[in-house]
Amino acid sequence: MAYEVEKTDEQWRAELSPAEYEVLRRAGTEPAFRGEYTDTKTAGVYGCRACGAELFRSTEKFESHCGWPSFFDPKDSSAVELLEDRTHGMVRTEVRCARCGSHLGHVFEGEGYPTPTDQRYCINSISLRLEPEAG
Fold first, then answer.
1. Which of 3, 21, 114, 122 is the most exposed place for a label (fewest CB within 10 A)?
2. What's 57's domain CATH number?
3. What range does the domain containing 119 cover?
4. Is 122 marked active-site?
5. Locate the MsrB domain: which residues (predicted)?
């Protein structure tokens, strides 16, 4: 897949911390309940930590108590890419940044959360950077 932002593995390693690289470029997962944005209530836009693309708004963030930031909808449906993930003996839907292909987390459906979409975008904090609203 060709992305708008294409970099070599060496470039990604130079620009990202080892922990960021492990999650964003190798589809790792940060430990539950330890991420910077798990409980954040700050109004703003969450962007991709690797390329800066705007991905999620704070208005779509909700408390799922799953250990990672949860959103019920991306800022723009074309901002994320959804791929089947059959790793770890499960079938899940991986969420990637549509601009650079970085791993963000997974999306789950039908869990019964009281959200408009019945979806939970379970996203690693380390994959995101929050740009607080001005004012």
1. 114
2. 2.170.150.20
3. 9-132
4. yes
5. 9-133
